[in-house]
């Protein structure tokens, strides 16, 4: 069932939701949380599809907030709320309300969302992209127990991790962290089978993928060993190597589908390590509504703790990137020769 409301209010939207529920033969809500998606028109379809798929595991009321402040003074002066209500098969296992806020109302989205929250139910806010610098201080983020961002959509994903660390508040999380759950589980299970001491670790993956950094920082914190970050062509994370005196423990996934776990003295094993879609990631995050302390520790660790190099290129040095190493080499080549070299050149010229 689909209901369109133009130039409406929150109370009219609530009334329409009740009417739609009665028309479908159900007066009870039966939903466990409210998921607020803050997005734009370009990303709304994909975000709503992921939320609807996730609602089959977590029946929820989904509120999609689309802000349309307007470009011209006339458009900004027009304050209007349009709503699109989806109930039944169109909304997964819950209810979906798409809120389009025009003009000045876009700056006060929380006043529209607050009356539409399910009573006595947790609230989760998700920014598929363009997340605020400090989600907990955002007016919509302040309504939620959990706030979900995605660093991979930022212009500088690694820089976004630094921003997430500086503005971290218990309840914050990022889908870049959720993407490495399978890797963390497999590596922890591998170490449970071997009583060995890890001396170093290597994480390989795409240069712009923040999940690679988070996995390396997690290994650095949990194992207390130096971690090297190797840039490869992907897709995503391609391999993790744990160094031991008996040989390397390697979890390799070159194709983004199946991984191979290699351990000294044991046959190689194929493990399921498929790259998951957004619906699966959101469903995982909705399973827990308490603060994720392990994520907090990892994201707060400075990224420069990792040593970085490109596959096949000499190591750039502790705390430095490959680009910085190249710049330093170029600068060194342009420096003046030392005094001894200049004196030798002068003697050679006088001899001629």
Q: Care to describe what's here?
A:
By secondary structure, the protein is of the alpha/beta class. Helices cover 34% and strands 23% of the residues. It contains twelve helices and 15 strands. The strands form two sheets. It has an eight-stranded mixed β-sheet with strand order 1-4-5-3-2-6-7-8, sandwiched between helices. Strands 14-13-12-11-9-10-15 form a seven-stranded mixed β-sheet, with helices on one face. The chain starts with a strand and ends with a helix.
Terminal CA distance: 96 Å
Q: Sheet bearing the most strands, described?
A: 8 strands, mixed
- State the low-pLDDT regions, or none: 314-352
Structural class: alpha/beta
Q: Identify the overall geometry.
A: elongated
Radius of gyration: 26 Å
| pLDDT averaged over residues | 85
Report helical residue fraction: 25-40%
Number of DSSP strands?
Answer: 15
What topology, given as strand order, has the largest sheet?
A: 1-4-5-3-2-6-7-8
Strand content: 15-25%
- Spell out the helices and strands N to C: EHEHEHEEHEEHEHHEHEEEEEHHEHH
The DSSP helix count reads 12
